Amino acid sequence: MKDANALDMLALALVIIGGLNWGLVGLLNLDLVQLLLGSIPILAQIVYIVVGLAALYMVYFAVKK
């Protein structure tokens, strides 16, 4: 990823964060997004959507390269 731009790096960071969150959900039944943003449901939903979009972008990035 030496020629990655800022969008590539942001998408990668979001996918890593999302993956770590899912790992915590699977191992400890602990959803950090809900823990941190559960009192603001629309914001939690936005975070999930943005992480999902980042994953789709990473699929595109992987196919493009």
Structure notes:
The model has no long low-confidence stretch (mean pLDDT 93). 82% of the residues lie in helices and 0% in strands. The chain has three helices and no strands. The chain is mainly alpha-helical. It has helices spanning 6-28, 32-37, 41-64. It is elongated, with a radius of gyration of 13 Å. The chain has one domain.
Strand content: under 5%
> Which regions contain 5 or more consecutive residues with pLDDT less than 50?
none
The sequence of SSEs as H and E is HHH
| Largest sheet entry | none
The share of residues in helices is over 70%
The beta-strand count equals: 0
Taken from the alpha-carbon principal axes, the silhouette is: elongated
Mean pLDDT: 93
Task: Please report the distance between the alpha carbons of the first and last residues.
Answer: 10 Å
How many domains make up the coordinates? 1
Counting H and I runs of at least 4 residues, what is the number of helices?
A: 3
What is the radius of gyration?
A: 13 Å
Question: What are the main properties of this structure?
Answer:
single chain; 65 residues; mainly alpha; 3 helices
